[in-house]
Amino acid sequence: MALHDDQLAAIADVAAIGAPVWLRGGWAMDFFLGRITREHRDVDFFAWAADAPRIIEKITAMGYALLPEPPHDQQLDFLRDGVDLSFALVDRDEAGHVVVAGGPWAGERWPDGMLDGPAATLGGIRFAVVDPYAQMEIKRRMPEWVPGLPRRPKDAEDVARLAAALGVVATD
């Protein structure tokens, strides 16, 4: 079985945990586009920090190991049979904006409307995805938000794919 088949099966596992979770990164783009565009190193999600204990309980019960890093107030990383799941934890500030839940960037705002993306289907699996406009902003701004992180060619390609699907001009 190819890695993307294992990753799709893992996405189906996460869909069954009963907590609000959103696909982000390359898999969010693929679900939005309705096709697999490239190989993915891992499967990235956003989840509410308050749901972290339930996520840990449900995902470890499926045989995934909770990795010790990064700190669990920021992100939860799991591994099973070569499939890496990563849950970036979010919260809301006093004004109701989605923010980074913990770590050195705690309280920093994510793009407005980020969690208002559509549910999308790929491989018979339906899953909520990060809003594609927010996804493009995240991919464009990550090197700005994380100094020293180079702009990756795959991020520019993903922005171009999303922009084409949305019928907008991809700006950098």
Protein described:
With 172 residues, the protein is of the alpha+beta class. The chain has a single domain (3-132), classed as Beta Polymerase, domain 2 (2-Layer Sandwich), CATH 3.30.460.40. 35% of the residues lie in helices and 23% in strands. It is built from 5 helices and 8 strands, in the order H-E-H-E-H-E-E-E-E-E-E-H-H. The strands form 2 sheets. Strands 1, 2, 3, 4, 5 and 6 form a 6-stranded mixed beta sheet that branches. A hairpin with a 2-residue loop joins strand 4 (75-80) and strand 5 (83-92). Helix 2 (25-33) runs parallel beside helix 5 (153-166) and helix 4 packs antiparallel against helix 5.
Short synopsis of the structure:
The chain is of the alpha+beta class. The protein is built from five helices and eight strands. Strand 5 and strand 6 (98-100) form a beta hairpin.
